[in-house]
Amino acid sequence: MVKYIKYSAFLGVVLFAVNCSTVHKITTNSSSKSIQKPKVLGDDDDVYLPVAKSDRKTFFKNTDKEAHWVDSVYNQMTLKEKIGQLFMVAAYSNKDSAHIASIDKLIKEEQIGGLIFFQGGPNRQVRLTNRFQSLSKLPLFIGIDAEWGLNMRLDSTYKYPWNSTLGAVKDLKLIEEVGKQMALETKRIGCHFNFVPVLDINTNPKNPIIGHRSFGEEKHNVTDHAIALMKGVQSNGVFCTGKHFPGHGDTSTDSHYALPQLLFDKERLEKVELYPYKRMFDEGLVSVMVAHLNIPSLEHREGWPTSVSHSVVTNLLQEELGFDGLIFTDALNMKGASKFMAPGELDLEAFLAGNDILLFPENVPLASEKISTAYANGLITEDRLAHSVKKILQYKYKVGLHQYRPVDEKNISGAMFTTFKDALHYQVYENAITLVKNNDEILPIKDLRQKIAYVKIGDDVNSSFVSTLKKYTEITEVNESNLDSLDVCLKNYDLVILGYHKSDRAWKKHDLSDNELALIAKIAKNHKVILDGFVKPYALSVIPSFEDIEAVLVSYQNSDIAQIVSAEILFGAVEPKGKLPVTINEEFHEGHGFNFEKLNRLGFTAPENVGMSPKTLSRIDQIAQKAIDGGMTPGIQVLVARRGKVIYQKSFGFQTYEKQAKIQNTDLYDVASVTKMIGTLPVVMQDFDQGNVNLDSKLGEMLPVFKGTDKQDITFKELLSHYARLQAWIPFYKKTVDASNCPKPEYYSWGQKSGFTTQVAENLYLRDDYKDSIFSQIVNSKLLDKKEYKYSDFTFIILKEYLEKKLGKPLDELVNQRFYQSMGMNNTSFHPLKFREASTVVPTEIDSYFRNVWIRGYVHDMAAAMMGGVGGHAGIFSNSMDVAKMMQLFLQKGNYGGIQYFKPETFTAFNTCYYCGEGNRRGLGFDKPQLGKEGPTCGCVSMSSFGHTGFTGTMAWADPETEIVYVFLSNRTFPDSNLPNKLSKENIREDIQKVIQEAILDR
Q1: What is the Cα–Cα distance from 888 to 899, expressed in whole angstroms?
Q2: CA dist., res. 394 & res. 390, Å (int)
Q3: E-strand spans in 331-408?
Q4: Rounded Cα distance, 936 and 721, in Å
Q5: Are 93 and 363 spatial neighbours (Cβ–Cβ below 8 Å)?
Q6: Collapsing DSSP states into helix, strand and coil, what is residue 654?
Q7: Can you tell me whether residue 914 is helix, strand or coil?
Q8: What is the DSSP letter of 347?
Q9: 592 burial class (0-12, 13-18, 19+ CB within 10 angstroms)?
Q10: How many helices (H) and strands (E) would you count in the chain?
């Protein structure tokens, strides 16, 4: 059981007074501000009382077989071989043959016990590991110092978040999973040790070497995270090494270059620095690394490093704390130790101090000779040598080196990068990113109608952040080097997002320059500002005042996934959960962090996080490429979302077969009849929701023009179910072209002029009164003889007329004002060329039968074109992301971004198949899965699913049962829509939908 001893209030005050230098001044170019250094002692501090040794947990149990093997091997070893086991030598897989030969020699001649690998690559390291192991009589320990995964040392490997980022995460199961993944990689390349976790409590914000390597400044938080990481690593067969004993967190010197000094008394060390070690020992930590520190309260010899101190390594670590695992020195080439004593002498002193393994020795032959001489002279006893060497052999047995097998050299790269790691990475940042200020609940950003600017600070990449921001609403990047000019440019914006982006490389400085501080101050004073820092938290401490900044988000690192998740948080797709692991200033202290309730906007994640297989989803690529290679369409956009998260969004091919412009995710497509569902239908549903129409409303009542006609008694339900005996369509344009299929001058003008303002293509305008003629033809058209399902464009042309007369505004204005603006569907419009460059709008056809021009940015559907581009049945241009937003709104039964656009019962009414019994699969406006073999879907989605397809080669479908949204956009009509529809014949859209269903892992 965990037990604690509470110090008295008096003792706490006394100890706090002893260490009273807790306030540092951080000076900026314009002012100074007191930054509260973390409180490390006080009335409520506790000292951990360890459990009995027999009650300690263990990941690697002792066995009789192990003991027998250890004794057997030890008894056969020469003195030189025993001494050789004490050395773990530095090796590199990026160095030349001379280095490799030097390691070969040490293995053969000095019988060294292990190697610690540094820079290189995984494939090269595995080959060298196998080479070196083959030369060693007794298999070698292989270690690596990989605090944020192998990427700390090796190229072509996965980079996990830093410990300081993990320290902000409260879900320790995620930390354990990070440890597990790190262990699997480490094990895969033949390593037995990873020198993690860092147990230093970073109570000094100016610490030059620990900093982001620590889980934070608070001992409980550090220890909890360290235990979780250790569990993940050691439960998967890799040894952990806690470091840097007894604690490097409150130093101001880098022990790589000099010997840091800690002037704390023993009581302070017991309470703070030693706290994580005591708990870790009880939890089963295998090994400890002793730091090069000068701590007079522990070692009375002046300037004597802890790594060679018998008082520290033996008396404190082994006897007082009862640690009986492996003990490593920190690297003996570090100046904190090597300046103290010459090679050889240093190694001997470190062994005499009680260390088992001498890490990174500079001269193994000399050190071996020194230790051998000491042994011969009785300075080192047989018991002392056997104590360390047998312990080394014991752990070699535990890690399986008694049955050594070479590392498999195949598919190393595949093991380094798995899709699950990205899934985990998303989860970590969803739990780490910390909201430290949120005045007036400005976050999440709710009103997407406001004008938002983004200004970059820092010198690193920001593309993932900006591109994700733009998936939520229109964001303007403002770049202006002159501060006054920048301030003027921003006057036109309601909100400014300042993104502070610095390199994600561990040792790069994140300091704000004087100019950047001035920029933040001025912009915050004159504008409403959100500051998002993709930096170590300490970097923000130099900002003199946050008073004028409305919101501050700490995103910790500048990785792509951090940028994506941070943008999600700004717009409420993810709620912030992180808590600061360190103190930034008096206001933003350790443990601080706000939460808010997330909005139900689409977010982004990896497939595994929503129960989908990325491997299966990757088959979409093959099907899409098949369509392009087969000439079925020049280009394609595909998006898949599940449970409110986009998990697949890709573009394939080019805008045309000339292959000059690749399709981008942001390009716009003519979605054809999908317009019915995402353009007209939402407004119809709102009108229904408000009680203006009902299922039994009759067409003659809705539009008086139908009174007295054969259509007056068509009900709302019949109309929207395509069960009203209406004709499929009328080729209205044919009467307006001549025998050569050229526009007749009595109907068209090449150029706008009075009476000819209805634009149907570039520079081509239709007579304004012809729109009335189109509707008259519909009114006067004959009904079909038989009452059966018949898909008709007339339905939504009629509904457009109804809505515009009823609500007094054009359809494009209605849907934009009521839905698109507030949903952030800024890439969706009936007239895309009014707000987008033509180069970003995919061409639909080279028209040779009506307009006789390239159709780009003008609706392909002839009737919609003759209505000025705004048809109730066609005319919308959009991209996969925007279409998915509307589909998600439907899935969420009328709610998106926290706004209820219509009641859930309204959606249910429209998603009902009222005439399935009569063989009509349709809902109200929605298409539904086929009732027989033929239909719009793969035949593998639920009957509650809904969607629509479009003539240009489009499809949008959603399934409430699986919570999946699927969007497919193409321009299969290019260059000639009259050619056979190979895309449909080959079932490309349906086959992709089938793959999506097969990718579901958690049915």
Answers
A1: 13
A2: 6
A3: 358-359
A4: 15
A5: no
A6: strand
A7: coil
A8: H
A9: middle
A10: 36, 33
Handedness of CA 684, 686, 692, 693 (dihedral sign): positive
- 557's tokens: 């690192």
Q: Is residue 19 within 8 Å of residue 48, measured between CB atoms? A: no
Residue type, 792: S
pLDDT tens digits, one per residue of 209-228: 999 999 999 999 999 999 99
Collapsed DSSP state (helix, strand, coil) of residue 242: strand
The alpha carbon torsion through 954, 959, 962, 966 (nearest 10 deg) reads: 10
Q: Which value, to the nearest 10 degrees, does the dihedral of the CA atoms of residues 664, 669, 673, 678 take?
A: 70
> Which DSSP letter does residue 57 get?
-
Partners of 899 in the β-ladder: 896
CA distances from 718 to 313, 710, 724, 997 (A): 86, 14, 5, 32
CB 881 within 8 Å of CB 892: no
d(CA 894, CA 905): 9
Residue 387 CB partners (closer than 8 Å, separation 6+) = 356
Distance CA 683, CA 697 (A): 16
Name the average pLDDT for the chain.
Answer: 94
- The length of the chain in residues reads 1003
Q: Read off the tokens for 780.
A: 């006067």
Q: Specify the DSSP class assigned to residue 197.
A: -
Does this model's pTM top 0.85? My answer is yes
- From the number of C-beta atoms within 10 Å of its C-beta (0-12, 13-18, 19+), residue 392 rates as buried
| Cβ–Cβ < 8 Å for 863, 871 | yes
Q: Which of 226, 205, 213, 222 is nearest to 145 (CA)?
A: 213
Helix (H) or strand (E) holding 187: helix 172-188
Q: What's the average model confidence in pLDDT over 707-727?
A: 98
Q: pLDDT tens-digit profile of 428-487?
A: 999 999 999 999 999 999 999 999 999 999 999 999 999 999 999 999 999 999 999 999
- Taking alpha carbons only, the member of 867, 826, 846 closest to residue 733 is 867
How far is it, in rounded angstroms, from Cα 22 to Cα 946? Answer: 63
CA–CA gap between residue 295 and residue 245 (Å, rounded): 11
- Band of the pLDDT at 37, cuts 50, 70, 90? low
Contact present, 360 and 89 (Cβ < 8 Å)? yes
How many CB atoms lie under 10 A from the CB of residue 115? 27
- Give the DSSP per-residue string, 89-152: EEE-SSS-HHHHHHHHHHHHHH---EEEE-SB-HHHHHHHHHHHHHH-SSPPEEEE--BTBGGG
Q: Give the residue carrying structure tokens 């399902």.
A: 789
Residue of 248, 271, 293, 199 lying closest to 40 (CA atoms)? 271
CB atoms within 10 A of CB 378: 8
Beta carbons of 433 and 554 less than 8 angstroms apart? yes
Which two tokens mark 530? Answer: 């959100």
DSSP 936-950: SS-S-S-TT-EEEEE
